[in-house]
Amino acid sequence: MAASRIVIENCAIATVDANDTEYASGHVVVADSRIESVGAGKAPGSLENVVRRIDGAGHLVTPGLVNTHHHFYQWITRGLATDHNLFNWLVALYPTWARIDEPMVRAAAQGSLAMMAKGGVTTAMDHHYVYPRGAGDLSGAVIGAASEMGVRFTLARGSMDRGKSAGGLPPDFAVETLEGALAATEATIDKHHDASFDAMTQVAVAPCSPFSVSTELMRQGAELARRKGVRLHTHGSETVEEEEFCKELFGMGPTDYFESTGWLGSDVWMAHCVHMNDSDIAAFARTGTGVAHCPSSNARLAAGIARVPDMLKAGVPVGLGVDGTASNESGELHTELRNALLINRLGAHREAALNARQALRLGTYGGAQVLGRADQIGSIEAGKLADLVLWKLDTLAHSSIADPVVALVFGAAAPVALSLVGGRTVVEADRLTTVDEDAIARSTRDEAQRLARIAAQD
Prior knowledge:
By secondary structure, the protein is of the alpha/beta class. It is built from 14 helices and 17 strands. Strand 11, helix 8 and strand 12 form a beta-alpha-beta unit. Helix 2 runs parallel beside helix 3, helix 11 (334-344) packs across helix 12 and helix 12 (356-370) packs across helix 13 (404-410). The longest helix is centred in the C-terminal third of the chain and has 21 residues, at 437-457.
């Protein structure tokens, strides 16, 4: 059967390919689920089976944004503990998080995914690690919400086996046993992971953090991931307190501890990595370990400024993350392009830290690298999956900025005129097309109120 084609033309294009190729006025042709061609000027008039032709004048096409770190369930606990550092914030919220159940998690996932998709995210991920006893199929709820939304998705199946009685922060009934966590993670991989080129759902092994899991869970989790051929994810070097904890408990800093448990490698990515010295960065570069940079969350929790320019110079793969919406209430990734640039300019490199195109690369190709999908998504190149965003830049908000990439990164959040995932429309004219976003707003509000009532009874 002949391919159905979508043509977008007369638009600015930032391909984010290896040469940062851009077109002031160009075209992209999508054939079924793949990018067929990209180039300057109008698309060839002889194309057959064109089901839609879009005039993109006044717009910019980029690869779809790729989110590399999130906690969807936190959507229903936004706006709490707003003046806390990480550890105090966790202590304040874990008793509430320990009461989540399947309907809450599904609603929270829908809210998180909807906000990201409306802001140009075509590939999302969720690091879910809170599995209270009797809460239902939480992994299935999250995966189901992503499937319904129509975005590409990685579930980082998290776990914790160090409860309060063992010196951890979460209540004991909200953590799993070592054996239970490993078995449940393997079952999730077996049921949901798709290793194919155009996969919509993938699974990673993701114990929560050094201070909430045992060394044995870290070590055996790494062994499980490599036996199953999936990626590994966890939190790393987020705060000064975490570094002190690792030195006190393990006699070494976080990076050395990760290496000792098999947690450095080209199949691993860490969230945050704020407190990294030169040898830490060198170790990540040497092993190909990736980083999910979460600038808004790092600022919200006063964690510090990650050394992103130094990581990039060393060759560390770096992508962007929203992080959980209890520490980044906006829940958006496209605003992280701007925040990554601005916050990193407060660091040692000042105005030379990042520019607009580097920020866009973090949110697209960098994220694809971190998730192990750089040959499939993250840039606009023939043969790659048609995960594309058409940003509307001809409104008042961007009217006097001549450079479209600068307008997107430095300017106000741009409306999404069109978002395609594998050639399928997910957002059009700044509205979701696959789900009812007003219904999601109602359900997330209702579930947040139900969780608050349950938590208040404890």
